UniProtKB/TrEMBL annotation:
Organism: Paenibacillus allorhizosphaerae
InterPro entries hit by this protein: Chitinase_II/V-like_cat, Glyco_hydro18_cat, SLH_dom
Residue ranges constituting the GH18 domain according to the UniProt record: 225-534
Protein name, UniProt field: Glycoside hydrolase
Signal peptide limits: 1-21
UniProt keywords, alphabetically: Signal
Segments forming domain SLH: 25-84, 86-151, 164-226
Protein origin, superkingdom: Bacteria
Amino acid sequence: MKRIAALSLLLFVAMTGNAFAYDVQLKPFQDVKPADWFYDNVYSLAALDIINGESAAMFNPDGVLSREAFVKLAVASLRADVSKISGPAPTDLSAGRWSYPYIAYAAQRQWIDFMTDASGKFHPEQPITREEVAALLGKMLLNLQEEPIRGLWMQSGWANEKAAKQFKDGAQFTEAIAPYMYYAVNRGIMEGDERGFRPGDPLSRKEAAALIYRYVDQETAGRALKVTGFYAIRSYQAVNRISSLSNVIFGWSHLQYDAAGTASLQTGTTEYRVPEGWEQAAEAAKTANIGSELMVYYGSGNLRDFVKDNAAQAAFVDSLLQTLDNPRYPFTGVCIDFEGLKEETSAADYADFLSGLKAKLGNLSLTVAVPPTYYYKGYDLNQIGGIADTVILMAYDFTDQGSKLPSAPLPLVNDTVRQALAAIPQEKIVLGISKQANQWITTQEGTSYYKPDIDAVERRMASQPDGQTLSLPYHLKKIEFQDDRGSHLMYYEDSESIAKKLWLAKYYGLKGISVWHMGNVTAADWDVIGAVAK
């Protein structure tokens, strides 16, 4: 839908003191309530930036939708690239009009030819009717099918559908477009009610949200995702889940870089170390015949020095290769998780390091984990995407303690994915999901921030179900309660919010998802993940 006002901007202050404004919907619409039947439809599409409110605060669900606004919705839902669209379009649309590329895209595919008059005008601001919507969607959906399917539908399929549905007002359908209307009905995208189909009625904004959501949901339903699990930090309880994965990354090592000119891979100290009993996890990966990568973590402030230190890099790579080549381990590749490069001047150096490492790995795979690039400018996604076999988007840790922004609101996850897709092929992108909770406790003295253990959150949810809601537009579980410690506000990545992130990953056709870390993932989470696993 056309933006009538700027979206809600939330000011985020990073630890560096720099301020960032996110151009996504991070506040709820005042006129879309949890009891509304279209509640999830609106917020899911808003998170994907397919649909917008009429202002930052109001969605206006009963408002009438124009022709151009609905065409924009339909084309945007396809993830069509309209940035370079030119050529034939209705005569009453100038190339500078906001809706021009979407309408031109649809017109060139003959999806809206029935809506132009004898002089070739489209009348973009005219309210769109339900039959026009049905015909447009039917044409669009049929266009995505193979020719035999299209031919059979036009020959007899639509007539069978007409006979089966028997709408009270079916005689009011425009005959020329009835086959396409009935295809949208057949696909379950549009339906009637006790009054009939109401072909001449204008389409409301809430109806538009429902229709487009049904289409997106249908298109994503059959898609599968590869699932990568991070086996790290108290993950032994999930060792039996390794066999259900496409890839496992063992968080057993870190970069040791204390002085210029020297560095090494360390696997024996800190929480990133080879754990006791590692043999069982290694054997599980070998038996499952899945990819098994070694994660190398580093997050110290001198990372920017390391990516300029060729001697240290050479020493580190030699040390890494010795471990990767050790026949005792199951490693088929490496995952580099170097975090904290904020300066853009580090981007080329980091890419050079990764390129050199890739050249040394031979047949071993290279996965690179990258943070959101809003405030970490040292990660050139174009270059990294060209070097790495897989790129894991760490689309989380947006937490801002002052504004109580949780770690992974769906609109920001979506924005992170869209930025990555502009630089990296979708078949290389893995959406990172971090199983975590954010908690704020407020007393008379002020507000304190905590990161509670997952077990503690699960116990709270099981014993005290009151005060739990789905927080939209964040698409995270929201838990509120009071006790002798103060007033609590908690946001939690539960199975419902994970399911919505899986839906987002399927919508964009990503390679898969990863979960950090396996020890925190609950049985309910595994059920949701397993349902979409490839």
